[in-house]
User: What shape does this take?
Amino acid sequence: MENIGGNVPKGVLFEGPPGTGKTMAARAIAQEISVPFLVASASSFQSMYYGQTNRKIRSFFRSVRKAADKGGGAIGFIDEIDAIGATRSSMGSGSVREGVTGVVTELLVQLQSFDSPSGLHKLSNYLSNSLPAPMVALWTRLFPALPKGRAVFIAATNRASELDPALVRPGRFDRRVNFDLPTTKKRELIILGLLADRPTSQSALNAVSMIASQTAGMSHAAVARLVEEAAGLAWRRGSKVIDDSDLWNALATTQIGIAEGSPYPPEQRMRIAVHESGHAVAGWNLPGVGQVELVSIYKRGAALGLTARMNDKDQFLVTEAQLRSEISVALAGMCAEEIVLGQASSGAASDLVRATDLAVQMVGRFGLGESLISFDVIRTIGLNAATLSDAEGRKQVDAVLNGERTRTTELLIRHRDELDRLVWRLLAKEELDHKEIEEVLGISDSQSVDVSLSVDLKIDLD
Assistant: This one.
């Protein structure tokens, strides 16, 4: 690279959500090129004594230089660098600001000069340049040139936007590598790779693609935890092989909580079955909301039931029709209670939060209401507060919610027979998979577009 005028990056910044493999990638790089790998957490530099943090930073960079000179190269890795490298402009005044800015300044100095010659190198160069030629030859034979290895520093952070601009400029961190959450295909490959070392049934392998579609938003670490949980569930039920039921139960356990059965009084058990059946019927008949894979009235943590929907594609954009269908599915539990039991209950609290949030985004962010004004430009408060505190914005959000409530009620009335059959089947079995749902509702014509795991009927104590 240097022969054609390029420079090897001095520093690399890994940024991305927690659990996406930043530390693992740094270790893999060091192992691949067989050089020493020195790790430090940013919090390990911090000290209660003034000036000690700076001293620890200098000591770490010195250790990396020595390791590089000795081994021909080295990688220094600082995890969670935002703990000591936050921007100085957002800090107040006084001794606290002085101490923190001093730490950032020390980082800047070290990153800028860590490849400069060390004291011994400077002495050797000075003597070589100042002594007469015969003495230089003798000096060179007695004291061969000191080895000078190349060191590269890698830092990881979950909050790159909070780092000081001088810290992340070219010349200090020349390259930034973004670690995104894995896509559906990558999650599927991660699960298959983790199951390859474990005894797994064919049914579990067949379910991997569906499980991967249900884990949108999960990091690599979260997916690995899911597989570990599935192995634990298989062991607890006395099996030596991981089954598909273990994967589904592990998914529900990691995202919601451990199933506790259905310890409800008869009238509440009926209401919960009606509520979940409403979500399932709406999701079954509305396009663009994914395929309904599981309906359950098992209690998991604060969630009294769930309706899981699957998508076979990653979603990068959503249309207005898809957003409206998602709102309809969210409101379907409440609407089903009103149709079958005559009135809704507090179990719709979390559904209303989700429906309102989607409607706010439609009106205040995506320009899908009556106005194209984006409330995201108001930086001082959040989108929800900005939209709902505006009289016209609140009116438009309310209109979206009421419109979808009417549409959902009409849909459930048209499919009242299927709704009733699903309620009684759910009361009898407590949990239904896709095949059992299809036996009751028939073939679904809805297209799998979005991914959602609806957690419904959370206890509202207010």
